[in-house]
C-alpha cells in the first residue's frame, strides 16, 4: 500500500450506511403520497422522484468513497456529497412543491425523512472531509 | 508540558473511550430534551384547545354520535360530514339556561385541487359564532365574503390564491394561527359558501347522503350556557326533548384529553428518570474503571510535579468536555427528530401538539446541557476524590 493510501475508516462505513438507508426509506416506509383515484400523481411525487435520484447518486458516491483508497479522491467525493445532500434538503417543498395539506404523507413522512437523512449525510461527509484532510 | 491542554489530549488519544462516554451523555441529553420538548408541545396543544373551545355543550346528530369517536371528531378537528335539520338551532336556543347557540356546517370534499385526501371545509355563521370567530379575528380582521375561505396554518397555499373544490374556485382570504390540532388543516368559510359547495358536489353527481335541502341543514350546534346555569342540565334537557340529537359536555371531552396527556406525561417522566439513573451509574462505573486503568499515568504526573488538586481538576475538565459534547450532540439529535417529525408524532399520539416558543426551547436546551454537565461532574467526583488519596510510591512499585 502506498504511504498516501489509507484504509476505509468508520466514517466511510457510516456514510455508506446512511446513503443505503436514504433510498431504502424513500421506497418503503417514508414514501410520499400515493396516486389519486384516477391514477394521476400530485407534485409531491416528482419531488420524491428527484430526491430518490439524488439519493442513488449519493449511494454510488459512498460506494466509490469506500473502495477507492486514495485520500484525495475521498476528500473530492466528500466535497461533492455535501452540496448534493444540501440540495436534497431544499428540494421537496422549496424547489418542488408538495401537497397542500400538512397532514399528508409527503409532509408527515417523506419530507422530514429526507431532511433528517440529508442533514446526517451532509454532517458525515463534512466530518469525513476534515478527517481525511488531516491525514 | 502545558497542563491545561492535557484533558483534551487525553480525550483525543483514546477515541474509543471518549466516544463511548460521549454516547452515554448523548443518550441522556436526547431523552431529557426530546421527552421534555414533546411533553411541552402536547401541553401547549391542550392549552390552545382549552382556550379556543368556548362552547359548554356540542349538539350533533345522534346517529353520528354512535358511529365515531366524538373526542377526536370535535376536539381534534376531524369533523367529517353529517347533517341534521337547521330548525334544531331554534329549539336549542329556546332551552332554559342557553345563552348562545351557533350552528356549523361541515363538508369533507372528496377531491380538492390540491390533494388526494379529503379537505375538511367548516362553515360557520360570522354573526352568531363564538367558537371559531374569536380565533379567526386574531389573524383576520375583516368579514369573510361569499366564496372566500380562510385556511388553517398547515394548509400550504398562498393567501390571495384560489383553492378549487368541486369545480368551484374559492379565494383564500387569509391564514389562521396554529392551534396544534387537525383544525390547522381545515378550510373555513361562511355557511352560505359551504352550502354552495355542497350544491356543486351534488350537481357533479356526488351522493352526500343529505337528509334534505342543503339550505335547511346544519352539522353541529355549539351551545354556551348563561352564568349560573348548569351545562349538565342543558345537555340533559336537549338529550331528553330534542329528537335525533346528542348533546355532549365539552368539559368531559377535555378531561379525556387531559387524562391521555397525563398518561403520556407519566411514561415520559419515568423514562427520563430511568435513563438519568442508568447513565449516571454507567458514567460513575466508567470513571472508576478509567481511574484504575490510568493509575500509573496519574502517579507519573504526580512525580512530575502535579498536585492532587491539579489531577482532580484534570478529571473534572475531561468530564466537562465529554458532558458538553454529548449534551450538545443529544440536543441536536433530538431537534433533528422532534422538529421535522412533529406531524408524525402528533399523528401517533393522537393528541394536540403545539411547539413551544423559541425562547422556551432555548431555555430547555440550556437546562438540559447544564443537567448533563452536573450529572457528569457528580459521577466523576468520586474518582477525583480518590485521586487526592493516591499513594504514588505504592503504584509505581507495583510493576
Our measurement of the CA-to-CA distance between the termini of chain A, rounded to an integer number of angstroms, reads: 15 Å
Annotation field: number of helices of chain A: 4
Query: What structural class is derived from the secondary structure elements of chain B?
Result: alpha+beta
> What is the 3D shape of chain A?
elongated
Fraction of residues in helix of chain B: 55-70%
Overall morphology of chain B: elongated
Stretches with pLDDT under 50, minimum 5 residues of chain A: none
Quaternary structure: heterodimer
Counting structural domains of chain A, the number is 1
| N-to-C span of chain B | 26 Å
- The number of domains of chain B is 2
Cα-atom radius of gyration of chain B: 31 Å
Name the strands of the widest sheet of chain B in spatial order: 6-7-5-8-4-3-10-1-11
- The ordered string of helix (H) and strand (E) elements of chain A is HHHH
H-E order of chain B = HHEHHEHEEHEEEEHEEHEHHHHHH
- Residue-averaged pLDDT of chain B: 82
What fraction strand of chain A? Answer: under 5%
Strand content of chain B: 5-15%
Largest interface: A-B, 25 and 22 residues
Number of beta strands of chain A: 0
Class from helix and strand fractions of chain A: mainly alpha
Notes on the structure:
The complex is a heterodimer of chains A (135) and B (399). Chain A has one domain. Chain A has 4 helices and no strands. Chain A is mainly alpha-helical and 135 residues long. With 399 residues, chain B is α+β, with helices and mostly antiparallel strands. Chain B folds into 2 domains: 6-48 and 257-398, no CATH class; 51-249, no CATH class. Chain B has 14 helices and 11 strands. In chain B, the strands form 2 sheets. In chain B, strands 6-7-5-8-4-3-10-1-11 form a 9-stranded mixed β-sheet, sandwiched between helices. Chain B has a two-stranded antiparallel sheet with strand order 2-9. In chain B, strand 6 and strand 7 (168-175) form a beta hairpin. The chains are: A mainly alpha (135), B alpha+beta (399). Chain A binds chain B through residues 33-37, 42, 93, 97-104, 107-109, 111-113, 115-116, 119-120, and chain B through 111-112, 114-117, 119, 154-157, 163, 182, 184-185, 336-337, 340-341, 343-344, 347.
